[in-house]
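The protein record passed on below.

***
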Amino acid sequence: MQVNDAPVVRFTNVEELFDDINATDQDLLIVINISLKDFTKIQREREKRRRKFRVRRYNVDAQVLFITVTTGLHETLHAELYQLFRKPIVLNDWCKSWVSLGATTFHYQGSPRAPIGEGDSTGGPSPERRGRGEWPNCCALIERWEEQIPHLQGPITRRRHAAILQQNDVLEPVKRQTITITRDETTDPVSYDVAGGPLVLEFRLLFLRDPSLEDRDVVINIEDLQDFGMWAWEMAS
């Protein structure tokens, strides 16, 4: 799900938040009005209940929490996407230069008041991003946001996130590439069309060094993206 389409709830107490998480049929929930103390309570309750959701992003100053609800479809798709990313890593013998980090919790610069995040499938170059407190270079995410959300005022209980963006006009997604996969049922067998591909990830940005003559960008080709589209439709049906 895209951030613009995600439901928004105002935090009142931990019990009601877990009810909202259990009730949603989406894989992303945006929660506002969460203090650092509230966030700590949520983390403790999550461990106590062993409830599987991820803190996609928590901004302490803005008091905004993005929760990833780990639906079967969401988990399968990000895992398959990361496997497609890993394929050229293995083929090019870069395994010793890359470490997978899973859904590790990251604190920016190690500060408890700095933004906190848990990716779905993450990784980074080794040893450059292997140490404690180092953020990953690659995350399987729906969107990437680079500006922070300010404090949200007013009696917001349930609104679409697009309305919040319109009021505050502060978030701008940085999109490096857009790929659209569509299902064509007029063919036999059913086919999947990819527009905007292949997916190209710059070597320099992934490994934090200039490529040698043998190095190249990581590319997820059209055929693999078509397979990814097939998995998406099969899981969603």
Q: What stands out?
A: Residues 140-162, 164-173 have pLDDT under 50 and may be disordered. The longest strand covers residues 53-59. The helical segments are 14-23, 36-49, 72-91, 161-168, 203-207, 222-236. The radius of gyration is 19 Å.
